[in-house]
Design a protein that fits this description.
Strand content: 5-15%
Helix content: 40-55%
Radius of gyration: 53 Å
Structural class: alpha+beta
Largest sheet: 4 strands, antiparallel
Strand order of the largest sheet: 3-6-7-8
Number of helices: 8
Distance between the termini: 119 Å
Mean pLDDT: 76
Low-confidence stretches: 39-48
Number of strands: 8
Amino acid sequence: MKICPDCAEEVRAAARKCRFCGFIFSESSDAERTSAAEEAPEQTQSLEPAPSRLGRITAGKVLFGLILLALVAYVKFGIPDTSSRRSSVEKSATSPMTPLQKKVREATEYWEEEKRVEAAWPQRVRNAEVGVVTTIVGPGTSWPCAPSVAAIKELMQWHKASLAEPDSQANEVAFDHLTNSLTRTRSIMVEPRERVKILEKETGVRKISVIEHKGNYGVAYMSETAQGCWVEAEAVTR
């Protein structure tokens, strides 16, 4: 079919004369219209997209591409550099210790060795039986040592209270009571690791005589410890 240029009606493509208005079609115009109609499909066909070299895009291909991209990113950015961390650890291990660190380390090693030795003591020594030579339990605080059982029980009450809440008002009050009780009962404090001999034994307490002191003490202290004083059993038992 073709359109008459005079009346705009559709007529057959091979018609030379319009049956509606009598317009006569020239041969040149028919040839141009025919060639134009033949070229139109070719142009339409040429505008279609060329097939992809990768073929049809599927979900599997998309997933493979994402995995490949992730591997490349990990290799380039994700592998941690452990060389600097290892060098810093090696440096800290080989760097000299400060005097304080050295003292702490020596003290720790000393007490660990003491505990290993104590673990091998006979049961009589560990139980602080009468007649054995042992040491005041350490490391830790000093222990009250009183001339009587009643005095040591009073002193231990304030001693434990003074250690229960450090840096508190109750701690200060308990410490004041402990100091006053030590003076009133003519008692002393014995230090951890001092060597003592067990003279007497009662439930929860032991009477000791200090035979090796860890510090420089006065005559009164030496006299008191030579005669013997009472300590709580925890101070000499393991």
